[in-house]
């Protein structure tokens, strides 16, 4: 049976052991000392399938995105499972004073929006860095908050599978549900009542073996991304207790922009 870990179950014998990455001193410890207790006041995070997150080595974690606040949920869940939560962030943020220093010190992964050749080179370098240091990275494959009216995962972008296929790194799907009760998509923060329940489920590594030899093909990357999104949608379906849509929502088909606030 899958393990289930709540945010208040710190001494549970079923908690996955921490990786060597987390047991080493790092800037994450003072940050965690502040962030984890605060998030614990807002959310009661329950985790299923936590043993499926690799204890050591590189991985790409691919969660769904329903609220501006759910990165905190994902980060704390990953930390409680014994890994340091690193996100893929826009390259321009690394040039911002202070913020750029923090991003570099915590090992966040820059994503380039330059030409395809430069972006491909940056992806390969980032992938090699993850493998060399045995780090994981959290990549929201949708690229922004879902535009799907019922908050199901929408069509994904290829960044997560590009990064994974470039270095032979496993893609781990994740679904989370409940953060939108505290901060609805593009809505107002609702802190009361405290300790709202948020459920997180970690899935098995996505089987992308069919796409390994075609990693340079855009068609293959799109197809591989569709497989990842289907797995995420399946996990979310389990959390919500209802079937996910058979096809992913495509913002372009509905006259929507894929970035920025969703217009009502």
TrEMBL record:
Keywords: Acyltransferase, Transferase. GO terms for molecular function: acyltransferase activity. Pfam families: Acyltransferase (PF01553). The keyword Ion transport does not apply. SUPFAM superfamilies: Glycerol-3-phosphate (1)-acyltransferase. Residues 254-264 have a biased composition (Basic and acidic residues). This is 1-acyl-sn-glycerol-3-phosphate acyltransferase.
